Write the structure tokens for this entry.
Amino acid sequence: MLATSGSCTRKDDDKNGCTARNDVLIAEAIEAPTIGSGCSLTGGVWHSYYDDVLIQGPSGVDIDHLIPVAEVHDSGGYGWTTERRRRYANDLGSDVTLVGVSARSNRQKSDQDPATWMPMAQVHCRYLGEWVATKHRWGLAIDPAEREALLRYAASCPNVRIVYEPAL
């Protein structure tokens, strides 16, 4: 099984002195935080697009794996090597694999797929595009209930382009 998200984004795979969590926070800040020694972050503001919430300070931001680790496992990740699991858990090669969101929305989503959870209606199309792109990026399967939900929601998203680069 894949590691839980609590331990996943604490690696510094790109060797820049910041964990994957802090790299995502820095990249997604709408008001930049102050970066201190050891890449400690203070201040800053983030927007949680799942629920349209502004978050003051990095401690209020959860870094969500867009495709939850349990969903990755169920979609084919159970056969991945430890190294591939680690690469997924800390994927900074895509702007959508890891996303900063409110703790509340992250808890509501948990390990659900679009068949059982969606963010607020105004961002359904964005979320679906990012979900499908991430599934393709990592070569993950889509189960029948998930497929039906994706098709149902996508009917109202005529202009969404799915763009992704396959993960190595």
Remarks:
- The first strand starts at residue 34 and ends at 35.
- Strands lie at 34-35, 41-42, 45-48, 53-56, 61-65, 98-102.
- Residues 124-137 form the longest helix (14 residues).
